[in-house]
Structure formats: C-alpha cells, structure tokens
Design a protein that fits this description.
Blueprint lengths: L2 H5 L3 H25 L6 H4 L11 E8 L4 E2 L4 E8 L2 E9 L11 E2 L6 E8 H7 L12 E8 L6 E7 L4 E3 L4
Parallel strand pairs: 1-8
Antiparallel strand pairs: 1-2, 1-5, 3-4, 3-6, 6-7, 8-9
C-alpha cells in the first residue's frame, strides 16, 4: 500500500462501506421496532385542541408567500357544500393580520358539515399589481374540508403564491 492510497482512499471502498453502515443501521432499527411496540407520539395520541372556556370556532389565516406577507385585501367566499355544490354563506376580506375580522363559524353557526373557502387569487394579484407571466396559472383556489366534531376548534392556515397553494388543519 502506498502513501497516496492513504491520503485519497478508494472512492468505491468508501461508498460500499457507507452503504453497509447505513444498511446495518436500518436493519437494527427495524429489529428494535419489531421487538418493542412504539408508543404513539403526542400528536398521534391526541386529537385537536379543545380550548376550555373558548367557544369552538372555525378561523382562517392566509399568507401570500409571493410577497412574503399577510394576504391583506384578499377576497374569500365561504360556502357550505350541499349535494356537491357550494351554497354561499358569506364573503370576507382578509385583514392586515391575515385573518377574517370574525370567525367563519362560531356559536350556533358552527355545525358539522362540508365547507369550502374560495380564494380569489387572480383578483388579489391584479389588485397588488404583481408583475406575473400572462396568462396566470392560478385563478380561484377552492379549499374543501369537513367539520365532524363541533367541540373542537378548527383553524385553517393557507399559504399561496401565483403558482401554488398549501393548507392544513390547525387548532
């Protein structure tokens, strides 16, 4: 063995050794998992947060990731879904905090069912005078979801740009 092979180890031996080490770690982890039942994590073992003393409600929080700010002025139509079609409940405009001024559902209006928020992103970017390729990609973005337990608070964070959107159920 010469000194050069010590300074610059053979790449193939290094790669094979790395694969073997990684494979051994995976095998030992799966063996450990099969012998010890895993306890569910906190997120898996509990449902959404029930805020005691605060009435359950449906709220939204909408962020414009293109401009890196709350989607101030975005029009959102809120509807229930009946027989597969949206039935308008109300329209809201997003405030400087990225939220509607009032919860979308609260008190007696907070009922089980299927719902939709429709974001008018094309109108929003036109209002902001955003320089975007034409024609635009997204126009109206529907987000459909369901309320199944009216004892739980649902918060719906939504992020969007001219080309994509994402949302999840918060609490």
């Amino acid at each position: 063995m010469n000194d050069n092979s010590i300074k610059n180890p053979d790449r193939r031996r290094f790669a094979v050794a790395g694969l073997a080490l990684g494979g051994a770690a995976l095998v030992s982890r799966s063996a450990l998992a099969s012998t010890t039942p895993a306890a569910p994590s906190a997120a898996q073992s509990s449902g959404p947060i029930v805020l005691h003393g605060v009435s359950p409600r449906l709220t939204i929080h909408i962020l414009d990731t293109f401009h890196g700010q709350a989607a101030v002025g975005l029009r959102v139509d809120f509807s229930s879904i009946e027989n597969g079609r949206p039935v308008p409940i109300r329209s809201v405009t997003i405030n400087p905090n990225g939220r509607s001024d009032e919860p979308l559902l609260i008190g007696d209006t907070y009922r089980e069912g299927n719902y939709e928020v429709l974001l008018h992103v094309d109108d929003y970017f036109a209002m902001k005078q955003a320089r975007l390729p034409q024609p635009g990609f997204l126009s109206k973005v529907p987000v459909r979801f369901q309320v199944r337990n009216t004892a739980e608070r649902i918060h719906l964070p939504i992020q969007f740009s001219p080309w994509n959107y994402t949302y999840y159920r918060g609490s």
